[in-house]
Amino acid sequence: MTTLRSMHSEISERFRTLATLPESQLGLAEGALVLAAEARPDLEIDHSLESLDELVDRARPLVEASDTPSGAVTSLNHVLFELEGFCGDKQQYDDPRNSFLDEVLTRRRGLPITLSILYVEVARRLGFEAYGVGFPGHFLAKIVGVHDADEGEIIIDSFFTRILKRRDCVSRVQVATGIPEAQSEAWLQPSSALEIYVRVLNNLKILYLREGDGLSALGCFDRILLLTPAVAAEVRDRAILLERLECAHAAIEAYSHYLELAPDQDDAGAIRSRRNALAQSRPRLN
């Protein structure tokens, strides 16, 4: 496997700025590149954005020559998936390069979420109303306002380079979760840019933990909590990781924060006991 880029412990000012921007000012691809630069600070974001612009320019003539809205989407798919060769990395799904948009632009391979980020960004620059969709287990993209398509939208699986029917997606959710159809529909709602960045970071966090790189996983936790500070489960899991990394004082603080956020959770008693035991055994500061 390719060497995994470490997630730097120090959060860059660019990423801190990203976390404070309103949704309307978040360029999806630029944000994904800022995230990638957290693992490779020398990444030239402007160069990657130029590559994206060139991709849009190559797609524009075919898209604009289409006779119908759905035909324009078909043309976009033809350019991205057939002419440009973007698709899912089925052979090396866990290759860390699949999580970084700059690498996806270069290698033409990626995860469902990074390929969907690319698809949505290109589509938006071509005038489509496009969104990422946080489908369970497999991120998707969709284009809405397509008046000659079923239900006015087209759902795209950028990993397997195909169009999906909405009813099939709803059925998959029902089979996987057992929830009613009305609730399954919620999984096809657009994801916000921050939700997408958190999901990318969560993928990386899991990969770092699997590789035994606790410090990089901690870097992902810190960035997730910068984007979504009140997610109690992330605070708890970060505390557990800090304890494993033998950062006792920081772990105690994180456990206490979790108990403030979720005092009535089922595991609150166990976490409180764990925090107290750690407090009794920690080295004293001089």
Features:
286 residues; alpha+beta; C8orf32 fold; Serine Threonine Protein Phosphatase 5, Tetratricopeptide repeat; 2 domains; four-stranded antiparallel beta sheet; two-stranded parallel sheet; 6 strands; 57% helix
Overall structural class, as computed from helix and strand content, comes to alpha+beta
Shape: globular
Residue fraction in strands = 5-15%
CATH class term of the largest domain? Alpha Beta
Number of strands: 6
What's the end-to-end separation, in Å?
A: 44 Å
CATH fold group of the largest domain: C8orf32 fold
Helix content: 55-70%
CATH architecture of the largest domain: Roll
The major beta sheet can be summarized as: 4 strands, antiparallel
How many independent structural domains?
Answer: 2
**What is the spatial order of strands in the main beta sheet?**
3-4-5-6
Provide structural commentary.
With about 290 residues, the chain is α+β, with helices and mostly antiparallel strands. It has two domains: about 15-190, C8orf32 fold (Roll); about 195-280, Serine Threonine Protein Phosphatase 5, Tetratricopeptide repeat (Alpha Horseshoe), CATH 1.25.40. Helices cover about 55% and strands about 10% of the residues. The strands form two sheets. A four-stranded antiparallel beta sheet has the order 3-4-5-6. A two-stranded parallel ribbon has the order 1-2. The longest helix is centred in the N-terminal third of the chain and has 20 residues, at about 45-65. The radius of gyration is 21 Å and the shape is globular.
